[in-house]
Fold this protein.
Amino acid sequence: MSEYSNLNRGVLFKNSKKTKDSQPDYLGRIDMNGDEHFISAWIEQSKAGETYISIRVNDRTDATTKSDKTVTPKTKSKGNADAPF
């Protein structure tokens, strides 16, 4: 049986430690071409009322320099508020 590969795959989990709206709703990791990155995701709503997921990818070395070891941006990036996705 061949070994399972996580190459170019990722996972998100509900952020059970969320205490503020600015913190991500989901946190996880993703492998991109052999490099591991942390991902954060927020459930958002566009001005048109469409629900979408906003995602931020951080290099693993950037996130591990934080004292709490979590990826929590200082400001919530809304991106394109009219994006349908």
